[in-house]
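Please, why this fold?
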Amino acid sequence: MSELDKILESCTGCGLCVEECDFLQKYCSSPKELAESFRAGKHRTNPEIPYSCNICGLCEARCPNELNIGKMCFEARHQLVQEGRGPLEQHQPLMKALDWNESDAFKAVLPASSASTTKRVFFPGCALSAYSPDLVLKTYDYLQQKLPGTGILLGCCGAPAYLIGEESRFQEVIDGIESNMIGLGCPEIITACPYCHYVLKRHLPNLSVTFLYPILGEIGLPEMITTERHTFSIHDPCSTRFEPDIQSSIRKLIQAAGHEVCELEHSRDSTHCCGLGGMAFAVDSNLSAKKAMRTVIESKHDLVTYCASCRGNLAAQGASVLHILDLIFGEIWQEKGVAPPAEPSVAQENQRALKLRLLEKAKMVGPAMYQNI
């Protein structure tokens, strides 16, 4: 049964989802009303509607019947693509960015340098690489130190294509990652981005897809510069909404670093999306900003998140927000909290610089000495 049919059958109109969702407040009075409009074809005459949902899952978390409007919008996006009505013109920059992330300018595979075989690879993702090459390098160095046999794979998980319904392009990216892993002969991929973890765990069933932060909790934190004890609130990315172990690992890391956590009202399974979820910002940037402001207004302390994209959009709305790796590996993390998100050209230069620094460090600058995909 499609999610649309489930909503038509089971939505009681209680309003619990609507009161927390700017998207629903804009387009309907209840999910059932929205589903009825989709059944009548409104998603075809106004495709911006399904593409404006963050697909964040908060509706499911609040719904007594676990209905998910994001899944309905996701299904509608796929239908629009199949009918040649999607993706929309506004999505072209996203696909160009994906092409860049999969190009030789950034994409690379490096086997473990400190062991004869590669047992696992670190997959930092495109957003963290664009945010801070230094953090990626320091994290990778630490993983190599603590977990010999760790290589690295630079690239994108394909999320932009996946979320806008471009299934064939997404599958190309997934197949490429699987091919890389087969080539290296290793079964484990350590993700740093929560959405990369969400996607790869579901679409690469033959691999062991693990998450960086519980691993850091197991191997211990590096020696850190002693700083004054600070209180942080945590923004949980919506892709970890139903991942309590991951959420708890972040809180343990902050406490292990010598700081305190003050929970937001909307955290863990009730977290608000940062506004970038579902690639909705490409279609309705005002709605995206409005969603981010819910977290910014609610927080009475500096924020920590574990998604580079979340960090960027919350910072763009005026929040003082760190990435968890700023706290662990950053020498002057206090300055990073107010840093605005990088312009696209700067982000791409960061990605390019990261690849070059990795190649130089591995003494593999020549094109025949490393794997380009």
